[in-house]
Each structure stands twice: as structure tokens, then as C-alpha cells.
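the two lines:
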Amino acid sequence: DAKTTQPNSMESNEEEPVHLPCNHSTISGTDYIHWYRQLPSQGPEYVIHGLTSNVNNRMASLAIAEDRKSSTLILHRATLRDAAVYYCILRGAGGTSYGKLTFGQGTILTVHP
Amino acid sequence: DSGVTQTPKHLITATGQRVTLRCSPRSGDLSVYWYQQSLDQGLQFLIHYYNGEERAKGNILERFSAQQFPDLHSELNLSSLELGDSALYFCASSVALASGWNTGELFFGEGSRLTVL
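prediction for all of em together
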């Protein structure tokens, strides 16, 4: 599985935007970029995913670099509930991976009131 | 609520014992994934089943086994338990394309916390 690199931790203030970066220089053409987050004492929760174009949903936006070697998860207005570990994951669409997710260490996001 | 149900939520047992963790996927989801989360290893993929058939194996020990039943629920069996098996075990499900390939989201349960004493 291709590897992703994320900062170990980031901090933000409530109601401010948060940009969580992810580097994935060995991404293949068929890898989708997925973001999940894990709140304390809960299972991982899907946030967003994309292939080439920027994506928006009710939770966040995903900005993908033109060469796809990096991406940024954008939380437009952080809330205390957004404090979690955020995982950037490359997910193969074919081969024997059958879409399994390979989690890295993720970024611990702390949101200050 | 993801729609994925895992039981039991907590389990305490002794070394050498055997336990079974159960997962009910979201209604209609044919794929079930099992993950282990420990403090030192993070979230590790164990195994994936699609419509009753094993599709992919990850870092699953030989002492562990899983199966998916005709009603699509899945069980993870852990035997000859060791202290190091203490962890959170998550089940996830997803809608899958033919043959189990999937590029969409996974829905995770709240996990089963296993403590081996």
C-alpha cells in the first residue's frame, strides 16, 4: 500500500478553519484519497474521499494537488466536537486490496475553546 | 450511529482462553472488515469478507479466525489468548461492488474492548 505522511498533531481555535495536510508522493493512478477521523472512545468515522478533483460535503472539503502527491482536508469552522485523530488513507480500487483501508498514525487535532 | 453493531462491548478474560466477537453489518452491506487497535500498533487490518467469502487477509494471527454467515453477520474468534491480544476490535461494513471491490466509505462499529489478564 502506498504510504501517507501527516503531521503528528495540530491545534486550532474553535470556529476557525483548519487545514490538515497529507503527503502521498507514491500514490498510484487508481488510488483514492480517503479521510477518516476517530473521536475518543469511538470507531473511525468516514469524512470524505476523492480521486482527482476537489470534493465538498457537509463535513469538510478535500483539496487535491494537481499532481495528486498531496492533499488537504479543510474543516471550515472547527468545533470542539472536531477534536479527533484524522487519518489520511490511500485506498486501492483494484488488485487484491479489495478496498481495505491501511491506517497510519494520523494527526491528532486539538480544538481550543 | 453507523448502523454496525458489535457485541460484546467489553470483555475481560484470562490468558489461554477463547472468545468470540460478533458483528452485525449495516442492512444490505455485503462486505465486512475486521480491525484491531492497540496502543502500540494503531489500527491494523485483520481480514475482509464479502458475501460469506474471505477476500483479503492482513496481519491476522493463526490463533485468530473469522467467518461471515449467510445472514451476513460475522464473528471473529480469538483463541489461546495472550496478554498482547488486549485491544479494541472494530468491525466495519460497506456496500461492495461485484467481487467485493469497493471504493466507497466504510462504516465502523463502536468496537469490542478485549482485556486479557
